[in-house]
Structure prediction request, 412 residues.
Amino acid sequence: MIRFFLILAFLFSIEVQSQTLSFSKYVDTLCSNYFMGRGYVKDGHLKTAKFLEEKFKKINLKPLSSGKYIQYFNIDVNTFPYPIELKLDNKILTPGKDFMIAPESRGAKATYNVLNADLNNWKSFLNSKKDFRETMVCLDVSNILNKDTILMYKELRNILNKIFPVLWISNEKLEWSIEDKASNLPLIKIASKSVNYDFSKAQLNIENKFQKGLKTQNVIGMVSGRRKKSIIISAHYDHLGMMGQVKFPGANDNASGVSLLLNLASYYSINPHKYNIIFICFGAEEAGLKGSKYFTEHPLLDLKKVSFLINLDIVGTGEEGIAIVNAIEENKAAKKIGKINTRLNYFKKIKIRGQSPNSDHYWFSHHQVPSIFIYTMGGIQAYHDPLDKSETLPLNKIQDLYHLIIDFLNEF
Ligand SMILES: [Zn+2]
Prediction:
């Protein structure tokens, strides 16, 4: 009996040694304060890349022919490294919840008189030739239902923001992003539910730092196969970083994808594929797919020998299934995935989508590498806001996606 248990324990330990799946551990780590939202404030992107390089070494991935795991490139990025403040009359608004700075916004330290503008009055007040030096224009579209009218207001916002700082009040969900340019004047987006009162003064304390030619990086490692051909698995590690004191953890986008990639890397490190499997954690995806664009223009391997690429971006849910972007173009692969899914019942639905430049697979397709991008559907809807955090990300289908990808790559 004891011997039986010992054998069981031994078998179990082999199973555990072969690989301990750790999806939430990686997501928690990547979303922790140390990484600062994996953006361009307090070296968040750099710390993340160093962490990933160390992980790649531990997992026993090898560098490509360059001998290095890191590929550097430069980006322009507008950042807000210091705490930000917005006061309307005497009420202090909460950044990230009540308002967001437009990512291209310029900073300002000033108190303004607020002038309410609309589609009818703006020309007449411009013609009035008043002294507008301390004026901030407020456009409130929260009561406008017609989409075309809102579009007209957005055009007006662009016109007026060339002359004035602008407050934009709307019912739109507040989301943030990264911009590679900076405008000349502040633009602040406010949630309508946060300002259900009249105000005449706006006090701003915002500093932007436009970083030109900032050095950032991709992280690349591989498991060699017997064949000369390669398969790439990619996931961007960067996120939005900090907007002043507000951190964007980016649990779903894309700590989840990096976590899945690291688990797949551990798997293939122990169970090599006949093809080389190359793992790339791209930088600067949120800044406009900059890392993958740079990689495809300065490839560290012959892209003609890459048989396939799977890009993982936002894979932390899955109650409603998965979506595959570029699946219409890569329909043989999509059909294979569909068949495996029907046989093993991983996901209740696979949504087939056409090509879209919405993640890092795009530049590979552009360079004739067969590529798909997989994301999960359903569950928590937090996106590009401070609520995309590890505490509330379900990760309840990520193991199914892990197995689906391994099953699919087995058919190569
Ligand atoms: Zn993403």
